[in-house]
Amino acid sequence: MLTTAALRAHLLTARLAGVVGTTREESLRSYRLFAARDPRVLIGLDPEWVWGERKLIALMADRCGVSADPGHVSGHDVIDPERTLAALDACAERLASAARRRVPVLLGTGHPHRLLGFYAALADALSAAGCAVLTPAHGRCVDITTRFGLRTYNLDYVRGVGLVRDAGPERSGGEPGAHTHSPLPVRVALTAAAEAGGPLPGLVIGDHGWLCGAGQLGFEAVGPADVNDPAPFVGQAEGAVSVVVPLDDGVRAGDYLPLTRYVLNRACLSR
Q1: Which residue ranges form the domains of the chain, and what is each CATH number?
Q2: How far apart are alpha carbons 15 and 255 in whole angstroms?
Q3: Which tens digits make up the pLDDT trace of 97-138?
C-alpha cells in the first residue's frame, strides 16, 4: 500500500510537485491569455467572473502554491505537494461515491502520451466496481483548429479512455493518440450519448478540454491540471469543475501510476 508519505516523496522526486518543469514565463503567458479570454486557454470554460492577471495569480497561488508575487516573472514554477495530496484525496472521494452509486463514467485525455495509463487504471477499477465505462461517438470525426489550421481527428477509446487520433494519411498506428486541449471531443461524446438516449455520465474524469468542457455542460468533472492551465482552477472556483489536482502534466507516463494506486486505495477500489 502506498502511504501518503511515500507518495509525497514520489511527487517531489518525479517533479510532479515541488519545483516542476513548467516555467513561470509559461504560466504568466497563459494567465494573460486567459484574462483576454483567448479560447486556446479557456479550453471549453465560459467564465462567469472577470479574471484579470493579478486575480489569476492569486487564485493559482491559493490552489497550487505558486508564487503570489506578480513581480516573480522567471524561473520554474512550484506546486505545493500538500495541495496535490489534498486534491487526490478529494478525487478519491468522488470516485468512491461514483462506485457506491454505480453511476456511468466517462474518461478522456488530451495528453494520451503521458496520462493514458493513469486513466485506464481508473477505468478498469470503476468497471470492476459496477460502473459502466461509456464510449459514446466512437469513431466520430472531430474537426479541431490547431496552429496548423483546421484538422480532422477521429474520436477513439483505448481501454475505456477517450482520445483523438489524426484522421489523415500520416496517422501512425503505433501512436497512442494526438495531443489536444480542445473541448470538442467531450462535447461530441456527450452530445452523441444524449442523442442516442443512452446513459449519461454521473462522473467525467479527464484533463484540459475533457475536464472543462464537461464541467461547463453541467457534468460532475474531476481531473489533473498543470499550473500553466488556469481554466480548470477557475472552473473549480466558479463551481463548474468539482476537483482539480495540481501537478506537472509533462513528466514520464510511468510516474503517474503511483498516483493511480494511491487514489484507488483511498477510494477502496484497489484489487
Answers
A1: 4-266 (3.40.50.10490)
A2: 9
A3: 999 999 999 999 999 999 999 999 999 999 999 999 999 999
